[in-house]
Amino acid sequence: MAHATFTQTGEQVQSCKLISGHSIPAVGLGTWRAGSQASNAVFTAIVEAGYRHIDTAWEYGVQAEVGQALKAAMHAGIERRDLFVTSKLWCTELEPGRVRSALSKTLQELQLDYLDLYLIHWPFRLKDGPSRPPKATDILEFDMEGVWREMEKLVKEGLVRDIGVCNFTLKKLNKLLGFAQTMPSVCQMEMHPGWKNDKMLEACKKNGIHVTAYSPLGSSEGGRDLIHDPVVGSIARKLNKSPGQVLVKWALKRGTSVIPKSSNPERIKENIQVFGWDMPDEDFHALCSIPDQGRVLDGEELFVNKEEGPFRSVTELWDNEI
User: How far apart are CA 172 and CA 137, in angstroms?
Assistant: First the structure.
């Protein structure tokens, strides 16, 4: 049984129950674009700030650094059973015969015997060394059922405790649910007041699938910097909290877990100090009413080729659910 953990300021970190019976800590550290800061960020998050949930992926190119930090944290007295580590199966490995070897590489880099959660990163199979944007021949047929069967085997063998998906549409989720013998425990997707993604959230709740929100603070590079949004700023001042804390709390209030990313030690500590206070309903609803809904991370650079296809637009890529 996992121990209760606390933030630097003494707040108990909450967890969410998964359909498998396991628990996922409600706030984790994202490591996308962490680069050379990944090891320091992960160690600070675990040992100094009280995080127990670390989210990474093979495609991020930082798993070795994350692994070093996990090892250092365990040397500092943190027990493996108290950590929740997520990684993701990249698009070039979305072929039944490559799933196991991809996981083996990930476990080796992370210096772990098992993963708590393994996600399909994107539901599109790419050939090795694809262009950006991809050529039509770079996108291959994705045997979703075959890949899922291999992931189910990893659960049975104890190499992975839970499996799930990332960046799925309702259409693709329903396809998966039609043949899954082991249900996806988690669906991870972009979610923040600028892209509430309500339909997917409701579909997941209906099917007992937990949702983890990524990019909860929006993205300054993607043109949706919610940290400086006037509504967020106003609520932050009223509650005497940071804009980041307000956005993380909004995500928690919707029943999702959340993985804000930062390499700044003070921001890392700040982003998990969200459990000892509440957000009034009027403030929650104000955030839910932010206009101009739209994805920031739409996958266009990775998967859309406007001339050659097979996906000629972002709308097509997302099964017209955008």
Answer: 22
The tens place of each residue's pLDDT in the chain, 322 residues long, gives 445 677 777 778 899 999 999 999 999 999 987 777 899 999 999 999 999 999 999 999 999 999 999 999 999 999 999 999 999 999 999 999 999 999 999 999 999 999 999 999 999 999 999 988 899 999 999 999 999 999 999 999 999 999 999 999 999 999 999 999 999 999 999 999 999 999 999 999 999 999 999 999 998 766 788 999 999 999 999 999 999 999 999 999 999 999 999 989 999 999 999 999 999 999 999 999 999 889 989 999 999 999 998 999 999 999 998 7
In terms of DSSP bridges, do strands 23-25 and 29-30 run parallel, antiparallel, or are they unpaired? unpaired
Find the catalytic residue in 51, 60, 118, 214.
60
114 given a catalytic annotation: no
Q: Give pTM, 2 decimals.
A: 0.96
Torsion of CA 185, 186, 187, 188, to 10 degrees: -160
